[in-house]
Amino acid sequence: MAEKPSVEQAFERGLFASRWLMAPMYLGLVVSLAMLVVVFMREIAYYAPQVLTMSSETAILAVLTLIDLTLAANLLLIVLFSGYENFVSKLDIGAHNDRPDWMGTVDFSGLKMKLIASIVAISGIHLLKRFMEIGQAKADAVYGNTELFWLVLIHMVFVLSGVLLAAMDWLSARAKKH
Predict the structure, then answer these.
(1) Any coiled-coil ranges, and where (predicted)?
(2) pTM for the whole thing?
């Protein structure tokens, strides 16, 4: 086997090293996670003093808001860990007992499915919150029939995208078996 010219080797090493340009983006996602924590705590601080006087509808909306933020944070962690491990470098944290089972096992296909599933869940929660606000003057001023139609349509596009991505992965897995 002939040895590659040194220019080609240097070029390939440079290409391979360019993956580290993604590292600042993952650091930015950590900052984004901290921002979500601040927003989550702000929501808790807003709703906690009202807990003894709030209606059940308001309590459900508050809980849905917190779940929505938590799902977004979970999605961010999945993208952060899986993306870093798949595209930059393996996380060298040893056999830490807090290491999530899925770390190091989520490939690009799995990441894609987790991403669309989280987006569908977040969209569904957002849509449920809007439906629960129907009839409230403040919400009706913002979300009329046209806005609700578009929210439902966009949610259905997310659902359909998830189904199509799952079907593509299923077909791809079947093709690999044959």
Answers:
(1) none
(2) 0.71
Q: Which position has the token pair 């393996």?
A: 90
The DSSP annotation for 89-139 comes to -----TT-TT--TTTTT--HHHHHHHHHHHHHHHHHHHHHHHHHTTT-HHH
Cα separation, 65 vs 68, in Å, equals 5
- How far apart CA 32 and CA 76 sit, in angstroms, is 8
What pLDDT digit, counting tens, does each position of 10-19 carry? 999 999 899 8
Torsion-angle region of 135 (φ positive above 0: left; ψ -120 to 50: alpha; else: beta): left
Q: What residues have CB less than 8 Å from 111, skipping those under 6 apart?
A: 78, 79, 82, 83, 86
Least Cα distance to 128 among 143, 113, 116, 141 occurs for 143
Distance from the Cα of residue 42 to its chain's centroid: 21
How far is Cα 33 from Cα 39, in angstroms, rounded to an integer? 10
Q: Mind listing the pLDDT tens digit for each residue in 102-129? A: 666 667 777 778 888 888 888 888 888 8
Distance between CA atoms of residues 111 and 113, nearest Å: 5
Three-class SS of residue 49?
A: helix
Tokens of 130: 């809007």
